[in-house]
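Residues pack. One example:


***
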Amino acid sequence: MLKFGIIGFGFMGQTHAETINKFDFAELIAVCDINKDQLGHAAEGVETHLMADELLANDEINTVIIAVPNHLHLEMVKKAAQAGKDIIVEKPAAMNAEEFKEMMTVTEAAKVRFTVHHQRRWDKDYRLIKEVVDSGTLGDVYTIKNALYGFNGNMHDWHIYPEFGGGMLYDWGVHLLDQMLWMIPGKLTTVYADVRNVINKEVDDYFNIQLHFDSGISGQVELGTYYLTDKETWFERHWFVGGNKGSAYVDGFHPEGKIVRTSALLKNVPGKITMTAAGPTRSFGPAPEGRLVSEPLPEVTVNHDMFFEHYNKYVNDEEELVVQPAQILRLMSLLDAIRVSAKEHRSVSFE
């Protein structure tokens, strides 16, 4: 039985409490927050604490979820490891790769389990596009774009402070980048990043990141909190994958999309002008009737609860850990490289 304590009982801490309540293999024992008002949201029968050390002293708790602001993750991981608790830390796991290496060192020394809550590996839009890529149905994939756009512009709460790990790169960026790294095969050779403060004075709210892999795939991750159109469902998720045997797109938090192919390719005949609907030998403009052929996306069934379901199987030696520390170290190292690239306006060699 997983017996949880939650350190940090804000939005994510309360979300974890609701999720834990769904499972017959888990029980929430105690929660902790320095803000006494937050503790009023704890369910009846759950212990409440103002100090993390008090929660960690409870021998009934075997697993701790750390959901405090980002800059406090390392301190809390050290405390939990010293207390002998298995650890699930919220993303971003750390402020940089060096901090995460320290987390790996202390958890390995304490012989406690350690993972990071990357529940968006179970996003439906992501799993749809990953299933298409993994199937090989598009042939040789050459490009994958992952985008998210918004209209509010401003960040909120502690997310406006860079010293707390605020900004969109650490908020949504780690999810979008983790999805790309977990899907695209091969070494990530180079990174180029444009990271900007469009509306917010202190923290990033726009980025466009180019990823080039030795498998021949170029990835692009773009996010803007103030990136406006009046198109329906624009302010949601957007995926595009291009291969030499077709393309696929997925749009929306309640995703819709298709696989798209052509019934024929334009053929040039030596000595003759090949005419198309848009003029001689043109690839652009309206496609002739019947040229584009669409197919439905595959069926996938996923939800965020699966993070904990898989974690429970790992604890019971039924499968490997899904979100592995080595993978997150790669992700945190990528975030460091992105910061360098954006600051120096240059491509950075990565692996």
Observations:
- The mean pLDDT is 94.
- The two ends are 40 Å apart (CA to CA).
- Residues 259-294 form one domain.
- Residues 325-344 form the longest helix (20 residues).
